[in-house]
Amino acid sequence: MRLSARADYALRAAIELAAAGDGHVTAEQLAQVQHIPGKFLETILTHLRRSGLVRSQRGPEGGFWLARPANEISLADIIRAIDGQLLGVRGERPENVTYPGAAEPLQRVWIALRANERAVLEAVTLADIVSGKLPEAIQLLTDSPQAWVLRFRNAAPGQTGTMSVTSPADGIWPSSPSTEPAASGTSTGTPGTRRPGSRGTPRAGSFCSSASAKLSETSRNTWDSGVSRAAQMAASSSDDASLRPRSTSER
Hints:
By secondary structure, the protein is mainly α. Helices cover 46% and strands 6% of the residues. It has helices at residues 5-19, 27-34, 38-50, 75-83, 106-121, 126-131, 136-143, 204-243, and strands at 54-57, 63-66, 149-151, 162-164. Strand 1 (54-57) and strand 2 (63-66) form a beta hairpin. Helix 2 (27-34) packs across helix 3, helix 5 (106-121) packs across helix 8 and helix 7 (136-143) runs antiparallel to helix 8. The longest helix is centred in the last third of the chain and has 40 residues, at 204-243. The model is unreliable at 170-207 and 236-251 (pLDDT under 50).
């Protein structure tokens, strides 16, 4: 997944608005705090306002604020407002892309990839970011040593093509890729790195299994919530129709 600069700026601006609570924040304040170019920010705030995520007011007491509580706005909401769909294949939604012959199963890979992106980005809200407490499934993923393994192209023969780094929270900066051969799935043990599963940390497999289960649960909850909202909307429409006066032809 590649996140555009505009989406990154939009997320940071929205998080600042969430941190402000009920207060109004000016565009100048947002730009200064998050180092966002003014022209970019104007366009971003316009998109967020049109998407119903942000409100604004002019005048001495004016500024911007969130249109909904921060715990009801997910990161996915912000990204979609700026970049559109989370995953596109040649500009199309995965379900609208088909492949001939042996490549036919590729579509299902894109569908699975989008499902996982949704499970992460729809599970994390602006309130989660402001509080610094991520949902358990997300925290499990970031706690996994494998999550911090950088993969690079054009590895020389005999090298793993990866380097293992620690979380920035550990206070150790990434080291340069090792030139020594290493077994697949392990770190080379160079300074500033750690081996997956070291320091008494469970191995990545257990983290990934737990996180996968949590993400699956999150996906199901998101789906059930969407179905429930759709059913409520349908019921509301039906009630409205029953209350509407009938025309002569209907009588």
